[in-house]
Design goal:
It contains 21 helices and no strands. It is mostly helical. Helix 2 runs parallel beside helix 10. The longest helix is centred in the N-terminal third of the chain and has 39 residues. The radius of gyration is 22 Å and the shape is globular.
């Protein structure tokens, strides 16, 4: 009886309606009840700190385990090279798409003075340059080293334990990739015990994050109330302009993925029908990994793909091919640059593309606020203030998050159809009939 009560409470707390209510209440308190902010804000800060505590262990274990298993997979060597090529092309394409949408739509332009003053107060409090000044003259970083020096300095750790201690996610990611490759070259029997330990650590921290999802409404309430109280209505209205542009980018990625599956299966509706449950779960939960079982079932049971190969490719693509965050980071960076009236040259745009790809990779195992924090990996090398504008993206993330998760899942399924042998529409109908 008690277990059923707790299960019912958990279902209510994880409900999309509960989260929507918490977000709405946080916005209301932040805008109209400033006296209450001091009481709810600490819950948000504590929640964020606990999430940050979990992200690096998840990042290391997820990437290391995925790459090692890929290299150790027996009988899968025939398409490993094809898999890597498709992975790289899909991530690069998503970054280019984010840049294209940002350059064409100009989401960070057209701010009025009131919005700039409101955001400028947050920037001043964070110690970053004042946005209000950039309304009259271009923002220029005090010192901007060459991209190659910045890239190496932010990518390669001198000491992995120091990188773990300071929370340098990109350096940790670089280490995890190299360690995963090295582990994957070891004899499977000799590395099995270590792989089991790594998997156990990943599962343990994933369970901790799952527990945190039960108090997500309280964390969001505190974070959004505090952040909105400092942002104000003008900036909220300005961010509302950014939302449809971001959704347009995700829609373009969804269409491209659908066309890929059309080419690989000979049908447009069959993949959509097979992945209907996966699409609903992605939009409902906002969690790409939660969609893993239904995605595999849709590809295997409905579209007739080999289960052994699908079991390998789909989890890897969900972990490594972070197309949704990559597109979003590229678009968000252009938004911030336009907001600060920073003119990005060709070399800067190339830097945005590369950093967005690495930041997207760094979101493996992350979600929500922690995922958004990876945006700093793109902004800081360009000399743009990261922490000051991160709050803006936090406010709108309950709207953006589900579509970003859908972009990850749907493109991962499209990637799987590209890597696996082509299925004809007649074969799909035969599988569905059986």
């Amino acid at each position: 009886m008690i277990q059923q009560i707790f299960k019912g409470i958990g279902s209510v707390l994880r409900s999309g309606w509960t989260i929507l209510f918490a977000v709405s209440l946080g916005i209301y308190i932040g805008l109209f009840q400033h006296d209450l902010v001091q009481y709810v804000a600490p819950f948000g800060h504590i929640y964020l700190d606990i999430l940050k505590m979990c992200i690096l262990p998840i990042l290391v274990t997820a990437i290391t385990m995925s790459i090692a298993r890929l290299l150790q997979a027996e009988g899968e060597s025939s398409f490993i090279q094809r898999m890597l090529v498709v992975f790289v092309l899909s991530i690069v394409m998503s970054a280019i798409l984010g840049l294209a949408v940002g350059l064409i739509s100009q989401p960070g332009s057209g701010f009025d003075k009131a919005s700039l003053v409101s955001l400028g107060s947050i920037v001043r409090d964070s110690g970053a340059p004042d946005l209000e000044i950039s309304a009259y003259e271009p923002f220029v970083a005090k010192e901007k080293p060459s991209f190659s020096k910045t890239f190496i300095a932010n990518l390669i750790p001198e000491n992995i334990f120091s990188a773990l201690t300071t929370g340098s996610s990109l350096k940790v990611l670089f280490f995890a990739i190299l360690f995963g490759i090295a582990l994957g070259t070891i004899n499977k029997n000799k590395s099995e015990s270590l792989m089991s330990v790594i998997e156990s650590i990943y599962i343990a921290f994933s369970i901790m994050v799952k527990w945190l999802m039960l108090i997500l409404p309280f964390g969001l309430l505190g974070l959004i109330a505090h952040d909105v109280s400092e942002v104000g209505i003008p900036v909220l209205m300005a961010m509302i302009k950014f939302v449809p542009i971001a959704l347009l980018g995700f829609s373009a990625l969804f269409i491209i993925s659908s066309l890929i599956m059309l080419q690989r299966t000979g049908s447009l509706m069959a993949p959509l029908a097979a992945l209907k449950e996966t699409i609903v779960m992605a939009l409902g939960t906002g969690n790409a990994l939660a969609c893993l079982p239904s995605a595999i079932n849709g590809l295997v049971d409905e579209l007739g793909y080999d289960k052994k190969s699908t079991d390998l490719i789909v989890p890897l693509s969900l972990t490594i091919c972070r197309t949704g965050p990559t597109l979003y980071f590229a678009l968000a960076t252009l938004f911030v640059a336009q907001l600060y009236k920073v003119d990005l040259g060709v070399s800067d745009l190339i830097a945005v593309l590369i950093w967005s790809i690495f930041a997207g990779l760094a979101t493996a195992g992350a979600s929500g606020v922690v995922l958004l924090s990876m945006l700093t990996l793109v902004l800081e090398p360009l000399g743009l203030p990261a922490e000051a504008v991160l709050v803006l993206f936090i406010v709108i993330d309950p709207i953006i998050g589900p579509f970003r998760a859908l972009a990850i899942v749907h493109t991962s399924c499209a990637i799987s159809t590209l890597i696996l042998p082509k299925n004809s529409s007649s074969e799909i109908k035969e599988v569905a009939a059986n």
